[in-house]
Specification:
Helix content is 91%, strand content 0%. With 79 residues, it is mostly helical.
Length: 79
């Protein structure tokens, strides 16, 4: 009877190890796949926000006048 109990324990231990290994591999694969998508999404949101801020700054009155002044001086320059 003791050998039967040992055999049952050995099978149970192997089954638990197999479940643990599958769970670990599955969790790490799912976590990495989601992180890449989340990082791309956050990068895209940050890039769009930066573009909006830059557009607002460049099209503001003071910056626009200064840029026009720089271009006008460059075109009127004598070589």
């Amino acid at each position: 009877m003791y050998k039967a109990v040992q055999a049952t324990q050995a099978v149970a231990v192997r089954a638990v190890r197999a479940v643990w290994v599958r769970a670990r591999l599955g969790a790490s694969a799912r976590g990495d796949a989601g992180m890449a998508t989340a990082e791309y999404a956050m990068g895209l949101v940050a890039a769009v926000a930066f573009a909006v801020v830059l557009y607002k700054v460049v099209t503001s009155g003071a910056v626009s006048a200064e840029l026009q002044s720089i271009v006008k001086r460059a075109l009127d320059a004598k070589v």
